[in-house]
Amino acid sequence: MEVVREVYRLVPRLPREELYGVRSQMTRAAVSVACNIAEGWTREATRDKAHFLAIAHGSAAELETLLTLCEQVGWFPERESRSMRNAIDEVSRMLTALRRRRRESPEKTARSGRKAQA
């Protein structure tokens, strides 16, 4: 959720003409990260969980790319976007670890996922 908060904190600084471009794309990617993690954890099948975690990971990569573009064209100074980049990095590391664990031991991870929901 930190990623979503950071995106909504920064996107109002984008030029008005980007309302339906980069701004929309960034907010959709951030919300996609959070929603796909949530949806994946509700799935019983290991394959379904892995699918949603992969989508969330892809959305995080998309968001990181958009942030880099915004920095490069001067819309977000690096010092102002640092906390968003840190949030994206953190969720990406978490997703990488979850996906790796799931590949190494699907049964064990599925059991621990159910416990985490309780």
TrEMBL record:
Organism domain of life: Bacteria
Coiled-coil ranges (or none): none
InterPro entries recorded: 23S_rRNA-intervening_sequence, 23S_rRNA_IVS_sf
Membrane-spanning intervals of the chain: none
Region (Disordered): 98-118
Official protein name in the record: Four helix bundle protein
Species this chain originates from: Rehaibacterium terrae
